Amino acid sequence: MAAIATLTQRPTVAASSGSATIIRPDSPTQTPTSEASARGAAIYSQSWLLTIYDWWVLGIVSTYAWACSVPRFTLPWFRSNVRKGQHLDIGVGTGYYLAQTDLTGVKVTLADLNQDALDATKDRLVAEGKVEADETNCLLHDISRPLPASCPKFNSMSLYYLLHCMPGPVPAKTAIFSHLKHNLAPDGVISGASILGKDVRHNLFGRLIMAFGNWNGMFDNRADNAADFDDALREHFHEVETQVRGAIFLWRASMPKV
User: Fold this and answer.
1) Do 194 and 162 meet the contact criterion of CB atoms below 8 Å apart?
2) Do residues 53 and 120 make contact, with C-beta atoms less than 8 angstroms apart?
């Protein structure tokens, strides 16, 4: 869902089910998030969108526009790539994937641009008994920049429906792997799913969603293609597995080249 997170300086607050625990950025004077990133992510601050996101985006649109059923394909892919230990979920959406996954032995860190999305996701996971409030961190951060030094090595990372929201061509988006790989444990795995704009067949419904999303700034993916993403992943990781389901690019990578 929401894309890049902003590196806004906020105070650390006590964890509770109603308020996110914030990992403090290393510097309060970071370069601001780009206007394109902020505009795209701001859309997801609207509470009504968070309310219908699971039904509309992960249900109707994923199945009928992208021809990739979340319960059949994307969710099993997510579940198979969550490891025990430290897990970082980037671009949290509503927390749907985490809420549908066994998180026993998993300590979750949530990263996103939106305080609304972070709070809603944490509240959901706590309410459903998936996580403990005081053991779940929330990070406001621009993922195009290195993670704060206070972050641990993660055993797994997830970026689902994120890359197609990030501005710029594939090389600009995948530059994030140059620093994320340093926060991945040697035996860790990073995985995700993204909507492709090029070299896939979009039906009429998909073309309409693509046009609207790229027009209003939610997407920037007309040139996104599987070959470029695959090449970028192999530049940073020794082991890469990818597949295309409908218009969705599913990927996972491990053994970072550091």
Assistant:
1) yes
2) no
For residues 144 and 175, is the Cβ–Cβ distance under 8 A?
yes
Alpha carbon dihedral 68, 69, 70, 72, in 10-degree steps, equals -110
Mean pLDDT on 135-153: 93
Does residue 158 sit in helix, strand or coil?
strand
H helical segments located in the chain: 35-42, 47-55, 75-79, 96-99, 115-127, 170-174, 177-180, 204-216, 226-236
Locate 254 and state its tokens.
Answer: 């491990």
Q: Give the rounded percent of residues in the chain with a pLDDT score beyond 90.
A: 76
Q: CA-CA distance, 98 to 124, in Å (whole number)?
A: 10
Report helix, strand or coil for 124.
helix
Q: What is the DSSP string of 160-219?
A: ET-GGGSSS-HHHHHTTHHHHGGGEEEEEEEEEEEE--SSS---HHHHHHHHHHHHHTS-
Pairing of strands 237-245, 248-256: antiparallel
Least confident of 40-49, 64-73, 242-251: 40-49
User: What's this model's pTM, rounded to 2 decimal places?
Assistant: 0.85
What is the C-alpha to C-alpha distance for residues 258 and 246, in angstroms, rounded to an integer?
33
Which residue matches tokens 């950025």?
25
Helix axes 47-55, 115-127, angle to 10 degrees: 50
pLDDT tens string 66-88? 999 999 999 999 999 999 999 99
